[in-house]
Amino acid sequence: MKSNMFDGVIIRKFDDAQNHYMPTLLIDQGRRDLEMVLQNEKGGFYSLVQVGDSIRKRSNTLSVEVIRNNRKVDIVLDYGCQEK
């Protein structure tokens, strides 16, 4: 997940029945949609975000910028390992 990057709007949240009910976000990035599977994320990111939130993540970081109602919050994805 650290190497991934995305910038878009959450259009759907679901537990993917075809992928062992993994918590998944569908992100509209304009040209294409991206599925973000949050397997083993321990920080509660999936519970914190909502459909309609804008989210942005740069490559080589676990920090995700979430924008809702013109308020920006940075959330660090927690996979239980130390970031170097």
Question: How would you describe what is shown here?
Answer:
The protein has 84 residues and is mainly beta. The chain has one domain (6-76). Helices cover 5% and strands 46% of the residues. The chain has one helix spanning 45-48, and strands at residues 6-16, 22-28, 33-37, 54-57, 63-68, 71-76. A six-stranded antiparallel β-sheet has the order 3-2-1-4-5-6, with no helix packed on it. A hairpin with a 2-residue loop joins strand 5 and strand 6. The chain is globular.
What's this model, at a glance?
The chain has one helix at 45-48; strands spanning 6-16, 22-28, 33-37, 54-57, 63-68, 71-76. By secondary structure, it is mainly beta. The model has no long low-confidence stretch (mean pLDDT 92).
How many helices in DSSP terms? 1
Mean pLDDT over all positions: 92
By secondary-structure content and strand pairing, the structural class works out as mainly beta
Distance between the termini: 14 Å
Q: What spatial order of strands do you see in the largest sheet?
A: 3-2-1-4-5-6
- Return Rg in Å: 12 Å
Q: What order do the helices and strands follow?
A: EEEHEEE
* Strands, count: 6
- Principal-axes geometry comes out as globular
Main β-sheet description: 6 strands, antiparallel
What number of structural domains do the residues give? 1
Percent of residues in helices comes to under 10%
Residue fraction in strands: over 45%
Low-confidence stretches: none
